[in-house]
Amino acid sequence: MDYDVPLEAFQQARARLAPYTRHTPIAPWPLLHDDAPAGLRLKLENMQVVGSFKPRGVCNHMRQLAPEQRKRGVVAASAGNHGLAVAYVARQLGVPAIIYLPEVASADRVARIQAWGAVVVQYGEVYEDAHKMALEHAAAEELTYVHSFDSEATLAGHGTLGLEMLDDMPEMDCLLVAIGGGGLIAGIACLLKKINPQIKIIGVEPAGAPSMYRSIQAGHVISLPEVRTIADTLATRSVAERTFALTQRYVDDIVLVTDAQIAAATRWLWSECNQLVEPSGAAALAAALYGAADMNPYQHPVALICGGNAPAEPVLAAYSGLTR
Description:
The structure is a single chain. By secondary structure, the protein is an alpha/beta fold. It folds into two domains: about 5-50 and about 150-305, Rossmann fold, CATH 3.40.50.1100; about 55-145, Rossmann fold (3-Layer(aba) Sandwich), CATH 3.40.50.1100. Helices cover about 45% and strands about 15% of the residues. The chain has a six-stranded mixed β-sheet, with helices on both faces. Strands 5-4-3-6 form a four-stranded parallel β-sheet, sandwiched between helices. Helix 4 (about 80-95) links the parallel strand 3 (about 75) and strand 4. Helix 2 crosses helix 7 (about 150-170) and helix 11 packs across helix 12. The longest helix has 17 residues, at about 150-170. The chain is globular, with a radius of gyration of 19 Å.
């Protein structure tokens, strides 16, 4: 199938999202550092509502549901951030929501989702297990399933990030984007290439979860036997046919980063930029900092910091001994 998303779908999505999402900033490189690729900027989508890019796709999807679908409710499966976005949007729209998470999901993520009023069910070892059970639940009770990355509405919502970046930095010539299921990079790359085909799009995956990288190498979607990475929201065994096709068509390169590089970039963002992010949110920056992606050809590159839902307790614990 020839998958694509028309330009007008992104523009319509932007109007739907406006009341519920933020226009996040593009931050310059810290002034005391000259060790970055020339002109590198950081798109701080970790400052989005509920801490990641996910509400963009979810909101665009759920705002198009029929009244009866909204009344009955939605089901979703997630490694964490998508579930949080569904819970947030469902609360805003008055829609009942049930979120399936793997059993290994952190207590912090479970609590954040429940705080928005969604019902949480934990099942299976990885996202794919939770996804399978959530699909069965949705079919049995005739509820709408909100996929974390495989729908045109979701991709169009994520692509609004590209519209924002072009508004704020029209000279952007390269964008680094982390890949999990591929919905984020597929949506942004499709939008940006339609407007400016000269912008280079570089995908970044953990070396322990290279589902898109291996699929592109093979020329078709493959399923990894296992994934192992600290970037848990990027730990997807298989991308979708839709996200694969759009990535194959619009993305220029995919590079891999190690967990050690991701961890170092996570620490760097906290110590140098005061940005507390989850490991997945630092993956794109890791590729620029530690040489996985060659930044030399570009004058105005951007690394997308896609998520910030790291538990705050370890940071707060470091200050627990201080007195006022």
